[in-house]
Amino acid sequence: MSGVPAVSVEEVGKEFRLPHEQAHTLKERALHPFRRSGSDRLHALEDVSFAVAEGEFFGIVGRNGSGKSTLLKCLAGIYKVDRGRIRMRGRLSTFIELGVGFNPDLPARDNVMINGIMLGLSPKEALRRFDAIIAFAELEEFVDLKLKNYSSGMQVRLAFSVMSQVDADVLLIDEVLAVGDAAFQQKCFDVFQRMKDAGKTILFVTHDMAAVNRFCDRAVLLERGRVELIGPPDHVGARYLQRNFDREGAVVDGGEEGRVGDGTAEIVEAWFEADGVRTDVLPQGAECTVSVRVRVHREVAEPAIAVLLENERHDPLWAVSNEDGDAPSGLHAPGDEAVFSVTFRNVFAPGRIHVTPWMVHAGGAPIIDRRPRLAAAVVTAVHRSGGLVDLPCAMRYERGVREPA
Question: What is the bridge-based pairing of β-strands 281-283 and 277-279?
């Protein structure tokens, strides 16, 4: 990064004290004046450092509780950092929490004026931009209605509209845009694109990896208050999805429950590979491999081995056997080991997939060994197709095409 950054975060730390027991009334304090409740310390941010260049669209992502919103509030000056330093160049505009800066007992007309002035507009400029703000928010019919009677979506539209009209150099935007409907979200995205084209510096907190990939130049992934990764949005998005699916307690059956077979041979292990390396993360669109290792205990001729891929709901996604291709197994003696591998283009939708391998005698019966859901991996992608797979495709749309006579 060249030049002086627009935003600089240097070894920032923020802690909160969580009391074990609180006295809520004066009577409780009088009855127990010497009671000490004690408290725990929550390390919301620890040694967070990054820099954002002028004109950069920078994403901040992480699971719930990772410290994203705390970081944004520190950047906005709402929270004071306990350690480290934050530097910012230029006028700042924030959109980080629903209702902040609004008076619920005042109508939209007054709130627009007050909020615009708080964000740096002069009274004359706020008045001049009032009609454009209300029109963008699509609230022309509700200008004189008090904000306490607005829905959350109406408040979001008004707050974002005010923010978009402020001539700020740095904008801090939180996930609250998710409250708006789809049409308004698209209007917000159009504004993002205009701001990006205009060279504004934007820090954007979101769980939407498609938006990160679409707008951000770089992103940072926070995990338990620490920086886990800073880099291109597709890399950060893939790691975020891996983290999201790899929570503690995620269940992989391990292949023992429901295992059947006559013991002629055993399936020892199964695994996934990407770029020739064993992994439990499979990028969508990449060339991947699933492999199964077997060990023979009694002589067996021409056994067939197959793999079934399933998603988390046990929907069968794909099955293939060595009999489907040119991979004959031949005669195996006791003690022999073999590996059956299948390489494929990963078209599966994001989520966890499981592999069930099985081995049968020639002719299809009986079963030598079958181990349900023996191994698992997470398919990562920055968008979802809405189906079980995301097939590569070509599209065409033609207008004015006449039907054949």
Answer: unpaired
**Paired residues of 61 in beta bridges:** 221
Nearby residues of 299 by Cβ (< 8 Å), 6 or more positions away: 331, 332, 333, 334
Amino acid letter, residue 226: R
Tokens of 378: 């997470």
Which DSSP string corresponds to 267-286?
A: EEEEEEEETTEEESEEETTS
Rounded distance, CA 241 to CA 383, Å?
11
160/234 Cα distance (integer angstroms): 27
List pLDDT tens digits, range 5-18.
999 999 999 998 87
Phi/psi region, residue 109 (left: phi>0; alpha: psi -120 to 50; beta: rest), is alpha
Q: Positive or negative, the Cα torsion across 373, 376, 378, 379?
A: negative
pLDDT at 214: 78
Do 272 and 286 touch, CB atoms closer than 8 A? no
Query: Distance between CA atoms of 268 and 158, rounded to whole angstroms?
Result: 60
| Element holding 209 (H helix, E strand) | helix 209-215
d(CA 286, CA 380): 10
Residue identified by tokens 């929550």 is 42
DSSP string, 316-384: EEEEEEGGGTT----EE-TT-EEEEEEEEE--BPSEEEEEEEEEE-TTS-SEEEE-TT-EEEEEE-SS-
For residue 44, pLDDT beyond 80: yes
Residue 51: which of 11, 96, 13, 78 has the closest Cα? 11
User: pLDDT tens digits for 155-181?
Assistant: 888 888 888 887 788 988 886 665 566
Say if strands 351-360 and 375-380 run parallel, antiparallel, or are unpaired. Answer: antiparallel
Q: Which two tokens stand for residue 197?
A: 């084209």
